[in-house]
Amino acid sequence: MIISIEGIDGAGKNTLVRALKEELDADVLGFPRYGESVHAQLAAEALHGRMGDLTDSAYAMATLFALDRHGAKEQLEQYVDSDTVILLDRYVASNAAYSAARLHGDAVVDWVYDLEFGRLGLPKPDLQVLLDTPPSTASQRAIHRAELNHERERDRYERDADLQERTYLAYQRLAQSNWAGRWLITDDPGVILQEITKES
Fold first, then answer.
1. 20, 24, 162, 199: which has the fewest Cβ within 10 Å?
2. How many structural domains compose the chain?
3. CATH number, domain at 94?
4. pLDDT by residue (tens digit) across 116-133?
5. Which domain holds residue 194?
């Protein structure tokens, strides 16, 4: 079973994934895979202003993130129709939400869907969980996290409050339309665990 945890920067995805991992005895994979994927590393360089005008293109950035996930395709396919649960800290919906927010429109979400689930053949998640954390709260968490850990310096996306607000709204639209499968919108770990247990 593939379960993706989605939300804007600072929403609490990593905290929830760690809690659910213990409860479900689940495997965990976080995207972007900065430690092992050259595509993710290039995206990180761009988001910290070290790749010229690369970040100016929403499509270029989305492609880098998509190729990072494609690098984990074989690993993800092991969980399709499996009794083992893998929790994903971000997945394809993050590309759709951030791209829609950057381009001020939802037409790009079909392009992301076709790119990642179509051309790149990534497996669809069994359940997508949107952490319904308000952008103001998420922003304060991201700032606090960066203050505590200088390696977590906020990138271009994280520093852009308007982008985070638009991304939050884009995520809401994706979830409400059940984009690429079932969604659950909540910030209550108990509700999430109950739904995951029911589904598995």
1. 162
2. 1
3. 3.40.50.300
4. 999 999 999 999 999 988
5. 2-198
